[in-house]
Design a protein that fits this description.
single chain; alpha/beta; Ribosomal Protein S5, domain 2; 3 domains; four-stranded mixed sheet; 11 helices
Length: 456
């Protein structure tokens, strides 16, 4: 009889190796290779022709009539926005976030709202007892919701129980790292167990039309733990971001087969649970009556949603010979170094003997390249101690040549700024030609923008 071949799977990236090593050759992580027994390969199986003996299926064209999938609105508008309108029947959703960020609280609130709306909901916890979940529900004021609770970690037991009656409309598994399948060996949380348990649960959801939600742990760098293939198996991946020291949480859609990506939902953690924030721009702006040096308001864009955030900069002059420090919170440090280099090379400003600190207010993280011009405005304001007008916003992408390039959805950014009471906009020259209620000043190069701020 042929011997089973051993293989070693990296728990960080999912790559397979036939020999154990201390460091993964693909992702360079240490001590992540775990032994996993593969299927027995016989000479007959190796030589068998897969082109015969199977079941034929029908091929259809792209122009075939289809029915759009129905969505279940949870009643939580911010969650529905991130999902693209609600949960889809037969879909699998993976939500990840740091411990204590509010994943279980949000899903329990969504499950309660769906149950009160007449949907059958099952909530299976592998980390807490049912009494703990009931106590949290009472604290949140949803203890009367008809949600079916269970504390189990065996995938076979869960599927056997759910198959005995009508399938639930929503099934929440908290968390997938605690589930265990007896079909393969290994402790819960390993690559093979997470993959096998997820595959069986997703198969049940697809066959019975149940909307499945899997809660996933995250690693120390913020990515979802377990094999990378888990994110490919599900239909939607949501990331719950935010600092536990801050009140606000951001639910971001990273992948969505039934809607757009990069949509966000904003929540505020309160004593009665997570509350929706319908106007997130007001959260990230500092209320002030006079201008402050080193601050600029930037209209960021998350999917189709504009969010106004405040960019803060501080420039501290050092004695000659000291090594200056660059500290960034909420933005890319490499992008800051590029903006400083363009300001020095193209605009004649000197930051070589100064420490530079940049912060995005409210714990928000900005990935929009349109923030270049707003960051440059904050840096110039902090260096020259000239405040930017409190009723002005700035956005635009800065090239290495010093050119200010237009960005997407300029009209949408300007409209959001106008709704919040801003009257002026510092924008690229191409955007200044668009119609808007704001008074716009356009700039072709960063040098023109610096001259405007310094009154040259």
């Amino acid at each position: 009889m042929a011997k089973p071949q051993k293989r070693y799977v990296c728990q960080a990236c999912g790559s397979v190796s036939h020999r154990w090593a201390g460091q993964c050759a693909d992702c360079s992580e240490w001590n992540t290779l775990v032994e996993e027994a593969s299927a027995v390969v016989t000479p007959f199986q190796a030589k068998h022709d897969l082109r015969t003996g199977g079941r034929s299926f029908e091929l259809v064209g792209l122009d075939a009539d289809i029915v759009l999938p129905e969505r279940m609105a949870t009643g939580i508008a911010e969650l529905d926005r991130a999902l693209g309108g609600g949960f889809v029947e037969g879909s699998a959703t993976l939500i990840g976030g740091d411990p204590g960020i509010g994943k279980s609280t949000l899903l329990l609130q969504a499950a309660a709202k769906l149950a009160l709306a007449g949907k059958s909901v099952a909530y299976v916890s592998g980390e807490e007892a049912t009494d703990q979940v009931r106590l949290r529900a009472r604290r949140l004021g949803i203890g009367h919701a008809p949600v079916q609770l269970a504390a189990a970690t065996s995938t076979r037991d869960i599927l056997t129980t759910l198959s005995m009656g009508p399938p639930p409309a929503l099934l929440v598994i908290d968390s997938i790292q605690t589930m265990h399948s007896d079909l393969i060996e290994g402790a819960p949380g390993t690559v093979s167990q997470v993959r096998a348990s997820s595959q069986e649960l997703i198969r049940f959801a697809k066959e019975r039309g149940t909307a499945l939600v899997l809660v996933g742990h995250v690693t120390k760098d913020g990515s979802i733990a377990g094999p990378r293939v888990l994110e490919h198996m599900v239909d939607t991946v949501l990331a719950f971001e935010g600092e536990r020291s801050h009140q606000y949480r951001i639910l971001r859609a990273i992948k969505n087969r039934f809607g757009g990506t990069d949509e966000i939902g904003v929540f505020a953690m309160q004593s009665e649970g997570l509350a929706e924030v319908s106007n997130p721009s007001a959260l990230f702006l500092t209320q002030r009556d006079e201008g402050v040096t080193g601050t600029t308001v930037f209209p960021a864009l998350e999917g189709t949603r504009p969010v106004l955030v405040e960019i803060q900069a501080l420039v501290v002059r050092l004695a000659s010979g000291a090594t200056p420090r660059r500290a960034v919170v909420g933005w890319d440090s490499g992008r800051l170094a590029m903006i400083l280099a363009v300001l020095e090379a193209r605009c004649g400003l000197s930051f070589s003997n100064a420490e530079v600190y940049l912060n995005i207010a409210g714990g928000y993280r900005v990935q929009d390249p349109a923030a270049d011009m707003a960051v440059a405005a904050a840096l110039v304001s902090a260096l020259s101690e000239r405040p930017v007008a409190i009723d002005a916003v700035a956005f635009g992408e800065v090239a290495l040549s010093g050119e200010i390039r237009p960005v997407a959805h300029g009209a949408l950014r300007l409209k959001e700024a106008g709704k919040l009471g801003f009257e002026r906009a510092l924008v690229p020259a191409a955007v200044a030609k668009e119609e808007s209620t704001l008074r716009m000043t356009g700039f072709r190069t960063l040098g023109e923008f610096v001259d405007h701020m310094l009154g040259r």
